[in-house]
Structures are given as C-alpha cells and as structure tokens.
Design a protein that fits this description.
The chain is α+β, with helices and mostly antiparallel strands and about 270 residues long. The chain contains 9 helices and 12 strands. Helix content is about 40%, strand content about 25%. A 6-stranded mixed barrel has the order 4-5-10-7-9-8. A two-stranded antiparallel sheet has the order 2-3. A hairpin with a 2-residue loop joins strand 8 (about 175) and strand 9 (about 180-185).
C-alpha cells in the first residue's frame, strides 16, 4: 500500500497543473451540486412556512362563478355565501372554527394622518384560524359581533402610517368611510404572504359591522374554516361542499356557485413549482 501511495504521489507531483485542474473541477462540481440541492430544499421549506403561516388546518370557501345568459362572471361573481352558511358549517363534525370574511379597500383617517388600506370584517375566531397573535389590547369579541360594534384592530403597517411618532393607538379613533371606530387592539407583525402581499396592511373589524355600517351587503367575500386535525382537512372539505350544495339547492349536473379549497392543495402546487 505504501508503494502505491508513493507512486500516486509522484504521479501527482509530475503533473501538478493537471492535478490542480482536476481537483478544482471536482471541488467546483461537488459545490455546485450541494448549492443546488440547498437552494431547492430552502425553496420548499420557504413555501411550506408561508403556507403554514396562513392558518391552522385551514379551508377557504369562496363564491363561484355566475352564469347569466351564457355570460360567465368568473370566480367570485356568484355572491352566494351568507353568514347562515358559516353557522351551518360550524356545526359540522371536525370543524373547530369558522370566520366569515368581508373586505373593503378604503382610505382611513386618524391622528391627523390618512392611509389607504384593506378593511377586513371577520369573526372572533379569525386570529385562531389564521394563527395570528395579538401585539396589544384585545381582539373582536362575540358581543362586538352581535352588536355590530364600531371597534377595530390595527395591523402594524397601518399603525406605522397613522401613528408614525410611536403614539399608542389603543383607544384612538379611526375613521373608515367617515364612520368612527375605536381601536381596541393591535395585531403582531406577520410580514408578506407567499404572493408578496403585506399582511400587516389591514384593519380588522366585526364582519357584522362591515355589512351593516360600511357596505350594506348581505353576502360574504369568503369564509375561513379550520379543521380540528390536519388528518381531517380532506373530510371537512368534502362535508362543506356537500352542505353548501344542499343549502344552495345545487342539483346534479349543475356547477357549484362556490369554491372550497384547502391550503394543502395550494402547498402541493407551490412545492411542485419549486
């Protein structure tokens, strides 16, 4: 073995340039493979983290397409979801929480400043479903929802623009479409979503207050549903679909006027792309 080792060493020394080039090629090749694998793994992990940050065992119910005289409105055109649908879904087995969602893009004013943001009407279960902790104060209560109270919870981006000098927003008044809302809490910073949306650029109010005081509508933009266990997400998705077909009188052969999607479908598609 020592003779073979000496012969190998002599061969390397006689061909130093060739040996160095060969070693450099091997090092670069191995490093390239390691870096490529690390990038792929990091991308998949990032996608998974972003999806998981959206909520806990979450299922999203949205309005479907509306067909009028052969003209299809596209997703969201049906305006078919109601608060009653959400209450019925909450009674299904393996459903731990439901939150109706109504959104409005509006200019808001407070503390001598103004900012255009997304105002989101939700139920008290919203923070649980979305896995979104509070930074200070309290979130919307059931009594706030029952009374369509004029209370609001602010995201960190809204706070930074309406209260830029570090003032405490709790107890302050925020005008939304000239309707005064009292700030009762602030949400913890959540950052950008997987599609680059600033999740902290939001004001959250009771969905009943949104419908009665701001939009005058009776239908919802979406519903967030949380299954009790990740293993039950598919079963809950199927049960929600069957329930809504029954409530909306969807007969066989007719397209649903709603869509039911779970985050695992989105995660699988994103991971496949990565």
């Amino acid at each position: 073995r020592s003779i073979i080792a000496r012969m190998a060493l002599l061969a390397l020394l006689r061909n130093r340039s060739r040996s160095l080039l060969t070693m450099r090629g091997v090092v670069i090749g191995v490093a390239a493979v390691i870096i490529t694998v690390a990038i792929g793994t990091g991308a998949r992990t990032s996608v998974s983290d972003q999806i998981n940050a959206l909520g806990s065992n979450m299922i999203i119910v949205q309005p479907g397409s509306l067909n009028l005289g052969g003209v299809r409105s596209g997703s969201g055109g049906a305006s078919s979801l109601t608060a009653g649908d959400g209450m019925a879904i909450a009674k299904l087995p393996h459903v731990s929480a439901v939150s109706p969602t109504v959104t409005l893009r509006s200019q808001v004013v407070s503390n001598g400043n103004n900012w255009q943001t997304t105002v989101t009407g939700v139920a008290p279960s919203y923070t649980f479903i979305r896995s979104w902790p509070m930074a200070s104060g309290t979130f919307i209560s059931q009594s706030d929802t029952d009374s369509a109270a004029k209370v609001a919870v602010l995201g960190q981006t809204v706070i930074a623009n309406l209260f830029p000098n570090g003032q405490n927003p709790l107890g302050q008044t925020v005008l939304v479409k000239n309707v005064p809302y009292i700030v009762t809490g602030t949400l913890a910073a959540k950052g950008q979503s997987g599609v680059g949306q600033d999740q902290d650029d939001t004001i959250v109010i009771p969905y009943t207050s949104m419908l009665e005081r701001l939009t005058g509508q009776t239908t919802l933009a979406a519903m967030d549903v949380s299954a009790d266990l990740s293993d039950n997400v598919d079963a809950v998705q199927s049960e929600v679909t069957q329930l809504l077909e029954l409530r909306h009188r969807i007969v066989n052969g007719m397209p649903d006027d709603f869509q039911v999607r779970n985050l695992q479908d989105i995660a699988n598609a994103a991971a496949s792309t990565a």
